[in-house]
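Page 47, continued from p. 46.
Same chain as before, 254 aa.
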Amino acid sequence: MKKILILSAFILSFLGLASCSQEEIKTYSDASNIYFSPAVFPLVKNTSNIIDSTGVSFAFDNASIQKKIYRIPIRVQGKLSDVDRTVKCTIDQTSTAVEGVHFSLPKKIVIRAGREVDSIEVTMNRTPELKLNRVTLVLNLEENEFFTTKMQTKINTLTQKTMSLTRFKLTFDDIISQPIGWSAILGTFSPKKFFLMCDLLQLQPSLFNQKTGSAGLTTAEFVYYDNFMKRYLADQKASGNTIYEDNGTEMVFP
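Result:
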Protein backbone atom coordinates (compact mmCIF):
# COMPACT_ATOMS: atom_id res chain seq x y z
CA MET A 1 0.00 0.00 0.00
CA LYS A 2 2.84 2.32 0.90
CA LYS A 3 4.50 1.63 -2.46
CA ILE A 4 1.26 2.46 -4.26
CA LEU A 5 0.99 5.80 -2.42
CA ILE A 6 4.59 6.70 -3.24
CA LEU A 7 4.09 5.78 -6.89
CA SER A 8 0.87 7.81 -7.05
CA ALA A 9 2.57 10.85 -5.55
CA PHE A 10 5.43 10.53 -8.06
CA ILE A 11 3.01 10.33 -10.99
CA LEU A 12 1.03 13.35 -9.77
CA SER A 13 4.24 15.35 -9.30
CA PHE A 14 5.42 14.45 -12.79
CA LEU A 15 2.08 15.44 -14.32
CA GLY A 16 2.19 18.73 -12.40
CA LEU A 17 5.65 19.53 -13.70
CA ALA A 18 4.66 18.60 -17.22
CA SER A 19 1.59 20.80 -16.92
CA CYS A 20 3.72 23.74 -15.72
CA SER A 21 6.23 23.22 -18.53
CA GLN A 22 3.48 23.13 -21.14
CA GLU A 23 1.94 26.28 -19.70
CA GLU A 24 5.31 28.07 -19.77
CA ILE A 25 5.90 27.06 -23.38
CA LYS A 26 2.39 28.13 -24.34
CA THR A 27 2.82 31.51 -22.66
CA TYR A 28 6.15 32.07 -24.41
CA SER A 29 4.82 31.09 -27.83
CA ASP A 30 1.86 33.43 -27.44
CA ALA A 31 4.11 36.44 -26.75
CA SER A 32 4.82 37.89 -30.21
CA ASN A 33 7.66 40.38 -30.36
CA ILE A 34 8.22 42.87 -33.20
CA TYR A 35 11.56 44.31 -34.32
CA PHE A 36 13.41 45.78 -37.32
CA SER A 37 14.88 42.80 -39.14
CA PRO A 38 17.99 44.46 -40.73
CA ALA A 39 19.55 44.90 -37.28
CA VAL A 40 19.68 41.10 -36.94
CA PHE A 41 19.43 39.65 -40.46
CA PRO A 42 21.52 41.25 -43.27
CA LEU A 43 19.52 42.66 -46.20
CA VAL A 44 22.03 41.12 -48.62
CA LYS A 45 22.45 37.36 -48.37
CA ASN A 46 25.85 35.87 -47.58
CA THR A 47 27.03 39.08 -45.92
CA SER A 48 27.37 40.13 -42.30
CA ASN A 49 26.24 43.73 -42.81
CA ILE A 50 23.52 44.36 -40.23
CA ILE A 51 22.16 47.92 -39.97
CA ASP A 52 19.75 50.10 -38.03
CA SER A 53 20.10 53.05 -40.42
CA THR A 54 20.74 53.65 -44.11
CA GLY A 55 20.91 56.36 -46.75
CA VAL A 56 19.18 56.70 -50.12
CA SER A 57 19.80 59.23 -52.88
CA PHE A 58 17.92 60.37 -55.98
CA ALA A 59 21.16 61.81 -57.39
CA PHE A 60 21.82 59.03 -59.91
CA ASP A 61 18.21 58.65 -61.05
CA ASN A 62 16.70 60.10 -64.20
CA ALA A 63 14.86 63.40 -63.78
CA SER A 64 11.57 61.63 -64.53
CA ILE A 65 11.81 59.67 -61.26
CA GLN A 66 10.08 61.79 -58.64
CA LYS A 67 9.31 59.14 -56.03
CA LYS A 68 11.02 56.12 -54.53
CA ILE A 69 9.79 53.40 -52.22
CA TYR A 70 12.10 52.02 -49.55
CA ARG A 71 10.90 48.91 -47.74
CA ILE A 72 12.12 48.41 -44.18
CA PRO A 73 11.72 44.75 -43.14
CA ILE A 74 10.04 44.05 -39.81
CA ARG A 75 10.06 40.61 -38.20
CA VAL A 76 8.00 38.69 -35.66
CA GLN A 77 9.55 36.63 -32.88
CA GLY A 78 6.96 34.21 -31.58
CA LYS A 79 3.75 32.65 -32.80
CA LEU A 80 2.53 33.41 -36.32
CA SER A 81 -1.08 34.40 -36.89
CA ASP A 82 -3.76 33.43 -39.41
CA VAL A 83 -5.02 37.03 -39.47
CA ASP A 84 -3.40 40.38 -40.25
CA ARG A 85 -1.94 42.11 -37.19
CA THR A 86 -1.52 45.87 -36.91
CA VAL A 87 1.95 47.24 -36.13
CA LYS A 88 2.30 50.46 -34.14
CA CYS A 89 4.99 52.60 -35.74
CA THR A 90 5.56 56.24 -34.80
CA ILE A 91 7.71 59.04 -36.24
CA ASP A 92 10.46 60.11 -33.87
CA GLN A 93 10.59 63.80 -32.98
CA THR A 94 14.24 63.97 -34.10
CA SER A 95 13.15 63.44 -37.72
CA THR A 96 13.88 66.33 -40.09
CA ALA A 97 11.82 64.83 -42.93
CA VAL A 98 8.24 66.13 -42.97
CA GLU A 99 5.37 63.73 -43.54
CA GLY A 100 3.27 64.76 -46.55
CA VAL A 101 6.19 66.77 -47.96
CA HIS A 102 9.28 64.57 -48.04
CA PHE A 103 7.65 61.20 -47.44
CA SER A 104 4.47 59.27 -46.78
CA LEU A 105 3.68 56.07 -44.89
CA PRO A 106 0.84 53.57 -45.35
CA LYS A 107 -2.29 54.46 -43.38
CA LYS A 108 -2.10 51.04 -41.77
CA ILE A 109 1.06 49.01 -41.21
CA VAL A 110 0.50 45.28 -40.71
CA ILE A 111 2.20 41.92 -40.46
CA ARG A 112 0.08 39.98 -42.90
CA ALA A 113 -1.47 36.64 -41.98
CA GLY A 114 0.96 33.73 -41.87
CA ARG A 115 4.03 35.95 -42.27
CA GLU A 116 7.10 36.08 -40.06
CA VAL A 117 8.57 38.99 -42.05
CA ASP A 118 6.78 41.94 -43.64
CA SER A 119 7.85 45.51 -44.35
CA ILE A 120 7.10 49.18 -43.80
CA GLU A 121 6.91 50.99 -47.15
CA VAL A 122 8.31 54.51 -47.03
CA THR A 123 7.50 56.59 -50.13
CA MET A 124 10.14 59.30 -50.55
CA ASN A 125 9.36 62.42 -52.61
CA ARG A 126 12.02 64.10 -54.76
CA THR A 127 11.50 67.66 -53.55
CA PRO A 128 13.72 70.53 -54.83
CA GLU A 129 15.27 71.14 -51.40
CA LEU A 130 16.80 67.65 -51.41
CA LYS A 131 19.41 68.98 -53.85
CA LEU A 132 20.73 71.16 -51.02
CA ASN A 133 19.89 69.32 -47.80
CA ARG A 134 19.61 65.76 -46.58
CA VAL A 135 16.57 64.88 -44.52
CA THR A 136 16.19 62.09 -42.01
CA LEU A 137 13.21 59.97 -41.06
CA VAL A 138 13.41 58.08 -37.76
CA LEU A 139 10.79 55.41 -37.09
CA ASN A 140 10.02 53.76 -33.75
CA LEU A 141 8.25 50.44 -33.19
CA GLU A 142 5.99 50.48 -30.14
CA GLU A 143 3.95 47.94 -28.23
CA ASN A 144 0.27 47.43 -28.95
CA GLU A 145 -2.36 44.75 -28.42
CA PHE A 146 -0.61 42.42 -30.90
CA PHE A 147 3.10 42.89 -30.29
CA THR A 148 5.64 43.61 -27.59
CA THR A 149 9.00 45.33 -28.14
CA LYS A 150 11.08 43.43 -25.60
CA MET A 151 14.01 43.07 -28.01
CA GLN A 152 15.50 46.56 -27.82
CA THR A 153 19.16 46.28 -28.82
CA LYS A 154 21.76 43.90 -30.17
CA ILE A 155 25.57 44.12 -30.22
CA ASN A 156 27.18 43.81 -33.64
CA THR A 157 29.88 41.24 -32.90
CA LEU A 158 32.11 42.54 -35.70
CA THR A 159 31.99 46.27 -34.91
CA GLN A 160 30.87 46.08 -31.27
CA LYS A 161 28.30 48.74 -32.15
CA THR A 162 24.96 48.64 -30.36
CA MET A 163 22.19 48.19 -32.91
CA SER A 164 18.64 49.33 -32.19
CA LEU A 165 15.93 46.78 -32.93
CA THR A 166 13.03 49.18 -32.44
CA ARG A 167 14.42 52.35 -34.06
CA PHE A 168 15.37 52.75 -37.72
CA LYS A 169 16.85 55.86 -39.37
CA LEU A 170 16.41 56.54 -43.09
CA THR A 171 18.30 59.49 -44.61
CA PHE A 172 17.70 60.64 -48.18
CA ASP A 173 18.75 63.42 -50.54
CA ASP A 174 19.27 64.43 -54.16
CA ILE A 175 22.84 65.68 -53.73
CA ILE A 176 25.23 64.56 -56.44
CA SER A 177 28.73 63.61 -55.34
CA GLN A 178 31.49 61.62 -56.98
CA PRO A 179 30.17 58.07 -57.42
CA ILE A 180 32.24 55.12 -56.29
CA GLY A 181 32.59 54.00 -59.93
CA TRP A 182 34.21 57.22 -61.15
CA SER A 183 37.71 56.68 -62.58
CA ALA A 184 40.74 58.99 -62.55
CA ILE A 185 40.93 58.31 -66.29
CA LEU A 186 37.97 60.69 -66.68
CA GLY A 187 39.67 63.47 -64.74
CA THR A 188 38.18 65.63 -62.01
CA PHE A 189 34.55 64.84 -61.27
CA SER A 190 31.82 67.45 -61.71
CA PRO A 191 28.06 66.94 -61.87
CA LYS A 192 27.80 68.78 -65.21
CA LYS A 193 30.57 66.68 -66.79
CA PHE A 194 29.08 63.50 -65.40
CA PHE A 195 25.54 64.04 -66.66
CA LEU A 196 26.71 65.36 -70.04
CA MET A 197 28.79 62.23 -70.58
CA CYS A 198 25.93 59.95 -69.52
CA ASP A 199 23.54 61.80 -71.83
CA LEU A 200 25.83 61.71 -74.89
CA LEU A 201 26.89 58.09 -74.41
CA GLN A 202 23.41 56.98 -73.30
CA LEU A 203 24.73 55.63 -70.00
CA GLN A 204 22.53 55.24 -66.94
CA PRO A 205 23.98 57.42 -64.13
CA SER A 206 23.29 54.60 -61.69
CA LEU A 207 25.86 52.51 -63.61
CA PHE A 208 28.62 54.46 -61.84
CA ASN A 209 27.16 53.76 -58.41
CA GLN A 210 29.12 50.50 -58.26
CA LYS A 211 32.80 49.65 -57.96
CA THR A 212 35.19 50.02 -60.89
CA GLY A 213 35.81 46.74 -62.65
CA SER A 214 32.10 46.00 -62.87
CA ALA A 215 30.40 45.59 -66.25
CA GLY A 216 30.52 48.97 -68.00
CA LEU A 217 33.25 50.28 -65.71
CA THR A 218 36.39 48.52 -66.94
CA THR A 219 39.60 50.35 -67.86
CA ALA A 220 38.97 49.82 -71.58
CA GLU A 221 35.49 51.30 -71.27
CA PHE A 222 36.76 54.30 -69.31
CA VAL A 223 39.35 54.96 -72.02
CA TYR A 224 36.58 54.85 -74.65
CA TYR A 225 34.38 57.24 -72.64
CA ASP A 226 37.31 59.61 -72.18
CA ASN A 227 38.31 59.64 -75.87
CA PHE A 228 34.70 60.12 -76.97
CA MET A 229 34.24 63.11 -74.67
CA LYS A 230 37.58 64.66 -75.68
CA ARG A 231 36.52 64.52 -79.34
CA TYR A 232 33.10 65.96 -78.50
CA LEU A 233 34.54 68.88 -76.53
CA ALA A 234 37.11 69.59 -79.25
CA ASP A 235 34.40 69.58 -81.96
CA GLN A 236 32.20 71.90 -79.90
CA LYS A 237 35.10 74.29 -79.30
CA ALA A 238 36.02 74.30 -83.00
CA SER A 239 32.45 75.27 -83.86
CA GLY A 240 32.54 78.17 -81.39
CA ASN A 241 30.57 76.44 -78.64
CA THR A 242 33.13 75.86 -75.89
CA ILE A 243 31.64 73.81 -73.04
CA TYR A 244 32.21 75.29 -69.58
CA GLU A 245 31.78 73.94 -66.09
CA ASP A 246 29.30 75.63 -63.75
CA ASN A 247 32.22 77.51 -62.14
CA GLY A 248 33.19 79.09 -65.48
CA THR A 249 36.24 76.95 -66.27
CA GLU A 250 36.50 75.04 -69.53
CA MET A 251 35.37 71.43 -69.27
CA VAL A 252 38.28 69.03 -69.71
CA PHE A 253 38.69 65.30 -70.11
CA PRO A 254 42.37 64.32 -69.72
